[in-house]
Design a protein that fits this description.
Elements (H helix, E strand, L loop, with lengths): L1 H14 L33 E3 L2 E3 L3 E3 L6 H18 L3 E2 L4 H5 L8 H6 L5 E6 L9 H9 L5 E5 L2 H6 L10 H11 L4 E4 L7 H9 L4 E3 L8 H7 L4 H8 L8 H11 L4 E4 L6 H10 L3 E4 L1 H9 L1 H20 L6 H4 L4 E3 L4 E3 L2
Parallel strand pairs: 3-10, 4-5, 5-6, 6-7, 7-8, 8-9, 9-10
Antiparallel strand pairs: 1-2, 11-12
């Protein structure tokens, strides 16, 4: 049942029907001041940064993907090989199937063997903490491939509109805090496309969460996916009403950075290219993550994934060049156009 649902999700994303009506990441409204005299050598711009205690070559990350057992094996192995070559972090899809059963979908020790120096993030759902999961299961998820961190994903809206969804979300903040205090690796909390607000981010950080993936609106819409796979017209109508739910990624990155200045921040949700990535970093993100835009490449080959991120990297490098930013630290203070006032601001 669970494997079939994962397969349906994957098929809908690949069909191009997973983007909700009216959902926008907000990056189109942001514009850098163009620096016509950058005084830089484009080839010497440094895109490296640190994430989870490791230096990564560029500030990109593969966000969590999933599928049926055959697809998951292909996806995870291709991504691991590509991420090792690119030196970027890899977040795996939900490990619920692997923890509850025997089919690991490529989530065993071989994943670490394929990517020995890459930061790899394990992944469980917050809702499972109310259905029997606890420290033992979280530790098992980490141990499967010697993960550098554990992602706990929040998807209350998806669970609410999904007929098979987990609806009891009471007491989860304390349980997340318990994992933060008991696990030997940092905990990352991410949404799945509707956003983590500054208030929620502050509560999570206070419990010990090290990194917030805002995962705002603008990319994949899980309510649209659930409407597509609905068995009845009533189920489809309930899910469809939330097609434009959530806050834009760009606004959340800026707001969460202000609310949680010392937390790590991942920007995901509607990041379509390296220019969007540059904007997200300027607004406060440490790294930028993609899932659906990488999916087709991940099903083809590691080389296809490498090509995808090589294009993203060159776009980001040129954005740095044309803002006069020699590295990501400089990019974070690049000047932005204030469209309301008609002048350029340093804020």
């Amino acid at each position: 049942m669970l494997l079939e649902r994962k397969k349906q999700h994957l098929d809908i994303v690949l069909s191009g029907k997973a983007h909700g009506v009216g959902r926008a990441s907000g990056f189109d409204a942001i514009r850098f001041e163009h620096v016509a005299l950058p005084e830089l050598d484009l080839d010497h711009i440094d895109l490296a940064t640190e994430f989870l205690g490791k230096v990564i070559k560029v500030p990109f990350m593969v966000s969590s993907m999933t599928g049926g057992p055959v697809e998951a094996l292909t996806i995870n192995h291709n991504l691991a090989i590509a991420c090792e070559d690119l030196r970027i972090p890899l977040a795996v899809g939900s490990q619920r199937v692997a923890i509850e059963g025997d089919d690991r979908g490529g989530l065993g020790k071989e994943l670490r063997q394929l990517a020995p120096s890459t930061p790899i993030l394990a992944n469980i759902g917050a809702a499972q903490l109310n259905t029997g999961f606890g420290h033992a299961e979280a530790q098992r998820a980490v141990d499967m491939f010697e993960a550098d961190a554990l992602i706990i994903h929040l998807n209350p809206l998806q669970e609410a509109v999904q007929p098979e969804g987990d609806r009891n979300w009471s007491g989860l903040l304390n349980k997340i805090g318990e994992l933060c205090r008991s696990l030997p690796v940092p905990v990352v909390v991410k949404e799945v496309g509707y956003g983590i607000s500054p208030k929620v981010a502050q509560r999570l950080v206070a419990e010990g969460v090290a990194v917030i993936d805002v995962a705002g609106a603008g990319g994949t819409s899980w309510t649209t996916i659930e409407a597509e796979r609905a068995a009845t017209a009533a189920q489809a109508a309930i899910a469809s009403a939330f097609a434009d739910w959530g806050q834009p990624t760009s606004r959340l990155v800026e707001a969460v950075r202000s609310a949680c200045p010392d937390a790590g921040i991942i920007a995901s949700g509607g990041i379509s290219n390296g220019v969007d990535a540059a904007k997200a970093i300027r607004l406060g993100a440490d790294v930028v993550a993609q899932a659906a835009p990488v999916l087709r490449a991940a099903l083809i080959s590691p080389e296809a994934v490498i090509e995808h991120f090589s294009i993203m990297s060159e776009q980001l490098r040129i954005a740095c060049f044309c803002t006069g930013s020699a590295n990501l630290t400089a990019l974070r203070s690049a000047r932005l156009e204030d469209q309301a006032q008609g002048y350029f601001s340093t804020q």
